[in-house]
Write a structure and sequence with these properties.
Layout lengths: L1 H26 L9 E7 L2 E5 L16 E4 L2 E8 L7 E3 L6 E4 L6 E5 L4 E4 L4 E3 L5 E3 L5 E7 L6 E8 L9 E2 L6 E7 L5 H4 L3 E8 L5 E13 L2 E16 L11 H5 L6 E2 L10 E7 L6 E4 L14 E5 L3 H9 L16 E9 L10 E4 L12 E8 L4 E6 L4 E7 L1 E2 L8 E4 L2 E3 L20 E4 L1 E3 L5 H34 L3
Parallel strand pairs: 14-22
Antiparallel strand pairs: 1-4, 2-3, 5-31, 6-30, 7-8, 7-11, 7-27, 8-29, 9-10, 11-12, 11-26, 13-24, 14-23, 15-16, 16-17, 17-19, 18-19, 19-20, 21-22, 24-25, 25-26, 28-29
Length: 492
């Protein structure tokens, strides 16, 4: 009779434990990335009042089973439903990140400066030092850095991700290396037949300083006679951002070297004339054929059309040679790159005496245009966890990558509060490096958070079952007490 009392007490305790778990689940129904827990019961032990016996064929007596009386119930396990993802909540915040699992359960890696922990909660912010941190705790998000030599991610020991630092607050400038010209060159344009049609090209040097190269286009003459369909383009000047000529102080012969192998534009044989390149057009179609005889293709209407028009790297030699090293006003321009110009889009048509020829830095895809020094204007995270910086000069630079962690038994992780977990002997160890989340097809979604995976309907059903179980065990205690009371009353 006493056994039933203690069995019922154990039943009360286990049902109370289950109710505690249910209460915690419901309390965290709106907790970011919370994983619900469930309780399983197990029998405690049995008292054997008589053992089992075997049958005797000779006497015809059969065997008997053991007589056992159970002594109650205990909490078998508390299991975390860690592999079940919660619903997605859209926030629009670019640093709200949701892990989408393909084959294995992934975790963000965070650190409090001493301990490494793991979380599914993806609400992060950039702190005052530029690090990505958990919004709730301030723990720093861990990942991989960029190899300064190759510019690619170096998958080494994880470290805090500093997305805004003095090093990545700017993006390096680039020198202009390509350009193209387009538009109509009308032979009846008085600018062309007079002093020349002016074309300007904006360029950058290696340090991001801007300049304007000024060109002049005139008809090509042979012994004083203009040749139909041929024009000469010459370099007039290169002007800096302060509207000052950087060619000041150089002789015309020196300036001519910037064209490499130019030609005598006027055809009079004088060596002091400006050198240039001959642009030749089909007189029947008005389409561009070649420049200075380079890339002629008479069999098709598509011609090779590129020429290295400006050999600006010669400026280093020119200024070093022509100016005294002891002269404080001496200038050395060593940050230019040679510029190849595509002329295929130019045409020699009748446009009512108006030319529309213009030059644009970069090719038709925008490559080689050069860039000024860029300031960081935005950050973005792609599906692989790579974080990019956007700059106002058009550059997009890879800054770092978020690393993920996977475990052989994710349910074996231990909850340590603040939506974080730590490893245990049964979860598997963390190797300190992590994995690329895209390795098994998983991904990271931006502007979303993972919500709790608590199923309220299931929790309320479990609550009813638990309440009835607790009630039934309490009835066992009161009934046993009544029996004991009757036993005591026998003496009366």
């Amino acid at each position: 009779m006493m056994r039933s009392l203690y069995s019922a007490v154990s039943g009360l305790k286990t049902h109370q434990t289950r109710m505690d778990v249910i209460g915690n689940n419901i309390a965290n129904v709106n907790t970011e990335a919370f994983k619900a827990s469930s309780v399983t019961f197990s029998e405690i032990m049995y008292q054997t009042t008589s053992g089992a016996t075997s049958g005797n064929g000779a006497t015809g007596v059969g065997g008997t089973n053991a007589h056992q009386i159970g002594l109650g119930v205990a909490t078998g396990s508390t299991t975390i439903s860690i592999e079940t993802a919660g619903a997605a909540e859209s926030t629009g915040n670019p640093f709200d990140l949701k892990l989408s699992d393909a084959q294995s359960t992934n975790f963000f890696i965070v650190s409090d400066g001493t301990n490494t922990m793991f979380t599914r909660a993806g609400s992060f912010y950039v702190d005052g030092n530029g690090y990505l941190c958990m919004s709730s705790t301030g723990y720093t998000l861990q990942g991989w850095q960029v190899d300064e030599t190759t510019g690619d991610i170096r998958k080494d020991i994880v470290s805090p991700l500093q997305v805004m630092s003095p090093e990545n607050s700017t993006s390096a400038p680039e020198a202009t290396t390509k350009a193209y010209m387009s538009g109509v060159l009308d032979k009846n344009d008085t600018n062309v037949t007079g002093s020349g049609y002016v074309v300007t090209l904006g360029i950058y040097d290696d340090l991001g300083y801007s300049y304007t190269a000024k060109f002049n286009v005139v008809p090509h003459y042979d012994n004083g006679n203009a040749i139909d369909g041929q024009y000469v383009i010459t370099l007039e000047d290169i002007i800096d951002s302060d509207s000052k000529s950087i060619l000041e102080g150089l002789s015309q012969d020196d300036i001519n070297t910037l064209f490499g192998t130019g030609i005598d534009g006027n055809g009079d044989g004088a060596q002091d004339e400006k050198f240039g390149y001959i642009m030749t057009y089909d007189q029947n179609k008005g389409t561009f054929i070649n420049i200075s005889g380079v890339g002629v293709d008479n069999d098709t209407t598509t011609n090779l059309v590129s020429e290295q028009l400006l050999t600006l790297s010669n400026l280093t030699t020119l200024f070093t040679t022509n100016f005294d090293d002891n002269d404080p006003t001496r200038r050395v321009y060593s940050n230019f790159r040679d510029i190849s110009v595509d002329f295929s889009r130019t045409m020699n048509y009748d446009n009512s005496g108006t030319s529309t020829l213009k030059a644009v830095k970069g090719d038709t895809k925008g490559d080689g245009a050069g860039k000024k020094l860029g300031a960081l204007t935005g950050l973005s995270v792609d599906a692989n966890g790579k974080i990019y910086g956007s700059y106002d000069n058009g550059n997009t630079v890879l800054l770092c990558q978020i690393a993920a962690a996977q475990f052989a038994n994710a349910s074996g992780l231990e909850k340590v509060g603040d939506n974080c977990y730590q490893t245990t002997l049964n979860s598997g160890e963390f190797d300190g490096i992590g994995i690329d989340i895209s390795a098994d097809g998983s991904s990271i979604s931006t502007g979303q958070l993972e919500m709790s995976n608590v199923d309220l309907s299931g929790e309320f059903t479990s609550m009813i079952v638990t309440q009835r179980g607790f009630q039934a065990n309490s009835r066992v205690i009161t009934t046993s007490d009544t029996l004991l009371e009757e036993l005591i009353n026998l003496k009366r």
